[in-house]
Design goal:
Largest sheet: 2 strands, antiparallel
Radius of gyration: 19 Å
Strand order of the largest sheet: 1-2
Strand content: 5-15%
GO molecular function, one term: transposase activity
Number of strands: 2
InterPro entries: Transposase_32
Structural class: mainly alpha
Protein name: Transposase
């Protein structure tokens, strides 16, 4: 059964020309830039979903973000920034993460 007995996920991908496998560096599954871009995209998608569901509240100096247009304008510079991620093995091992 996958995931038991220390199974590993292969890190890397097929070359653009489709002729060979290119391995990632040992102990890395995804490049940090790719992971940062993916995390940024998913975070902002879910943040906007919370906004659309009416689950975010804005008060004080942020009260003007209650309209979707203002909220999107506020997020605009964040979408262009490079996000850095820091990932390390879980303290309790991969099984604890899956649990």
């Amino acid at each position: 059964m996958p995931g038991r007995c220390g199974a590993h996920v292969a890190g890397g991908g097929i070359a653009l020309d489709g002729t060979r496998w290119i391995s990632s560096r040992p102990a890395f599954l995804l490049p940090v830039r790719v992971l940062g871009a993916l995390f940024r995209r998913l975070f902002l998608i879910r943040l906007l979903a919370l906004f659309d569901a009416g689950k975010l509240g804005f008060f004080g100096t942020m009260a003007d973000l209650t309209t979707r247009k203002a909220f999107l304008r506020y997020l605009s510079p964040i979408r262009r920034k490079r996000w850095m991620v820091y990932a390390k093995p879980p303290f309790a091992g991969p099984q604890a993460v899956l649990a």
